[in-house]
UniProtKB/TrEMBL annotation:
Biological process terms in GO annotation: GDP-mannose biosynthetic process
Listed name of the protein: Mannose-1-phosphate guanylyltransferase
Alphabetically ordered keywords of this record: Coiled coil, Nucleotidyltransferase, Transferase
Coiled-coil residue windows: 28-62
Organism: Rhodocollybia butyracea
All residue ranges annotated as the Nucleotidyl transferase domain in the record: 137-420
Keyword Transferase: yes
Segments forming domain MannoseP isomerase/GMP-like beta-helix: 443-487
Amino acid sequence: MSVPLQLSSLPAGQLSVETMFQSIMSMMQQSQVDIADLKHECSELRQANSSLERQLRESNLKESQGYNGYFRPSTPGFMTPAPSSPQMKAKSPFLSPSLPASLPSLSASIHHPSPLGDNANASYFGTTRDIPGFYVVIPAGGAGTRLWPLSRENHPKFLLDLTLKGRSLIQATWDRLLPLTSASRTTIVAGPSHVTSIREQLPDLLPENLFCEPTAKDSMAAIGLAAAILAHRDPDAVIGSFAADHMISGDEAFLAAVAEAVEVARNDYLVTIGIAPSHPSTGFGYIRLGDPINIQNAPNARLVSSFKEKPEARTAAAYIATGKYRWNAGMFVTKATTLLSFLEEYKPEMASGLREIGAVWDNEPARNKILEKLWPELEKIPIDNAIAEPAAAVGRVAVVPATFGWDDVGDFSSLTDLLPAEANQPRILGDPSLVLTDQVAGGIVVPGSGRLISCLGVDDLVIVDMPDCLLVTTRARSQEVKRIVKKARDHGWSKLL
């Protein structure tokens, strides 16, 4: 706003293009600084407000349960100890005490709202949102190789606090879904190496609801295992599968979409949730919307016309231009028995094996015996290829188009977009006092070793400094980090992976 005044004060005829350009650039730079300051102040206020609300809720809970100073009541996953000061900030993405020996043991001692979610700022007490018969399944697998060396096989990204809010991705997923269900109906499927860390991060997870798969067999086996167990426990169960390592913004819209998907699933559909694309991404699969479905309490539901694999850029842009495509976030809601029926039709051997395992799962000796016999023979295949795509071809898959924000945090480039930063500065995931920059813009720096990192005159770099290794690449090539992971394995560095 100061530019017009400056220009108007100049005599007529003395305005040059250069003068106008310099004035405009000066105004834009000042605006960027002002906006960054405002964002920072708003973030601090939200964190302080969230902390006070959390303390009040915990105080009310203690009073309602007769807390006397000697008894510490059990709390749901979204209730965590209040911070000693809302102004303190976590300085490490590592939360679990049982970390690999090579990784830093810095842990965040405070809590802030769940990453990219608004449920930490909302009170669900006194509000009935529970969906009877709805069970949550959280597949917690994968090594997150595109986020190496921050994410490791034994401590993958879903165990990390990637926005320094005090909650890991799996904790945020738990927090987000708990209003629709309960701890008794929230299950997790994970591998043996992750069980201990998951139990530490989710103390309210019931032991019988942590399903440990002997080896990774991709999403169909993981979700199918949960479906077989839950169908045996409750033949009327409706299950919803949601990845442990995704970020969601707009929890109200998310919960509404899930509730609508449950209504559709009760009509024997396999239901997915379609994300409105914000740009023509080549890193996600797409869902083509079909005709509307006339189901009560599900006004947005449509049939899935088809699933599309990750496209190249021009095709992705063409998809978005039609307005008929949504991103495939891998979220599925269906009856447990319906999922098993689809498996019997399209993958009968897998269905038979999973039903046998589910029938004896709650008998540990019988479970171990049948897993040893049947699990190695199960096919390794994604749920999309196994049942979603063939079922969609015959009109048995539905989609609920949703409006909430979503990101699978698939690489350092997407992580960079999720972190706050000052104008013309890199994002910092960790202690900012360990990073010095001069004439540096864009990119991300992870100071995980405790060493000082100095950057001069470089833009859009990805620098991940861990105690045992260092990664340096560009943001543009962050999708290719898995190539260096493969090379490290081939050269005998598996212990660092």
